[in-house]
Amino acid sequence: MRFRGAALPTVLVVFAALTLGACGGSDGASGSTADLPTGDRLTVYSSLALQGESRVQTLAIMQGIRLALHEAGGMAGGRRIRYVALDDSSAEEESWMPELAAANARRAVLDPDAIAYIGEFESRASAVTIPILNAADLAQVSPSNTYVGLTTAEPGSTKGEPDKYYPTGRRTFVRLVPRDTIQGAALVSQLAGDGCSRPALVHGDESYGAGLSRILEEQGRAAGITFVADLSAGSRPLELQSQARGLAKLGADCVVYTGLPGSVARGLLVAAAAALPAARLYGSDGLCQPGFTDPSIGGLPAAVGARFRCTLPTVDLREIPGGAAFLDAFRARYGPADPDPYAVYGYEAMRLILDQISAGYTTRGSLTRSLLQVRGRRSVLGTYSVKRSGDTTLTDYGLYRVGSDGLPTFERTIHQAP
Q1: Which of 141, 210, 206, 214 lies closest to 171, judged by CA?
Q2: Where is the Leucine-binding protein domain positioned along the sequence (predicted)?
Q3: Which terminus of the chain is more solvent-facing, meaning fewer CB atoms within 10 Å of its CB: N or C?
Q4: Are 116 and 141 spatial neighbours (Cβ–Cβ below 8 Å)?
């Protein structure tokens, strides 16, 4: 999906700082109003890219959010809960836009009833919105972000992360999916299980792809796996073909691409498939989406897709503790079709917020602090805690293949130690 991880170019960090500056003064966006709201109605916002390649996943998240609120009768802690769904994407660009994400965050901050914010789908978008929301002590829960630098300075992050996203010095961001450190370990585990003795890494030129590549190299060393190459993907078809031939000369038997979907990732994998006809092909969560895998809409050719596996921080809904009950409730509300697995993360995001409100945390500051103190929570996802960094203790990743319909299809759960 632009699933979880995403690029964090410098321009967006600068943009976040600029939008944060616009939130100062007496307009309700500064930390001085952190204990709002005080009325009998609380508002939960979501900001998701509802257009473009991630539309299937983000609409599912939104349905999960609405289902949780419906089951609660629209109430929590004796207060009415209003849900406002915002779109951070552009129909013209068919992608999230930094200015739209920033505007959504500012809108939530300026609403005196706002108690929490669910989003973003893209890690890059959260790099824009976290500082804005942090300045107002407004809790942010992401159902999908995996980029390491949002919460830790572990390998894969860039200089100044994560502190530069938290101008107040306090954490206000919680993620419900395991970060890329865990994804790296999951991919390395799969490479070892598949007998990859000479794997090669290729990454996009964004922070997400390059960062995850560094994580894989480190995790590989720990597991006794040495990558024969770690390349930054070229930008032109001839360059990608040349890189693929270079991997063949190195004797690569597996190729892993970490990065965002698009012509570069597609071109590299197609070229690798041609140059290395027996090699296994893998991709990170950024590529594990219909827009990249479905040949009918410009995704990987079917012959290449048949050799491709990818990881996601979601697993089959039937494999999570509350999955069966969630599926029954979802179908009763929306119809018989199975939802995208991300639906349950939207559901849990809202359930988590509602449960904290019901426990008496009805101001921005108290709710934010309570989320970072969640321990041993029994949820539809399983039992988890939230670390002081904002990370979840959940560690399972899903391995997906490309089905006959061109869509990512769950294959198995890759279990990782907590």
Answers
A1: 141
A2: 60-406
A3: C
A4: yes
**And the tokens for 215?**
């994580």
Task: Return the amino acid letter for 3.
Answer: F
CB 129 within 8 A of CB 136: no
CA triple 189-192-193, angle to 5 deg: 85
pLDDT digits (tens, 9 = 90+) for 328-384: 999 999 999 999 999 999 999 999 999 999 999 999 999 999 999 999 999 999 999
Q: How many CA atoms lie within 13 A of 65 on its CB side?
A: 28
- Degrees (nearest 5) of the Cα angle 104, 106, 110? 120
Kindly list the structural domains of the chain, giving each domain's residue range(s) and its CATH number in brackets, ordered by start. Answer: 10-178+324-384 (3.40.50.2300), 181-312+397-414 (3.40.50.2300)
User: Residue 81 pLDDT more than 80?
Assistant: yes
pLDDT tens per residue across span 131-140: 999 999 999 9
Rounded alpha-carbon distances, angstroms, from residue 88 to 34, 38, 58, 109, 120: 24, 28, 11, 16, 9
Distances (CA, A) of 107 to 43, 88, 103, 268: 12, 12, 6, 40
Considering just the CA atoms, what is the radius of gyration of the chain in Å?
21
- Read off the tokens for 357: 């409100």
Q: What is the pTM of this model?
A: 0.90
The larger pLDDT score, comparing residue 6 to residue 220, is at 220
Q: What does the block give as tokens for 355?
A: 């449960």
| pLDDT at 28 exceeding the cut of 60 | no
- Cβ atoms of 220 and 193 closer than 8 Å: no
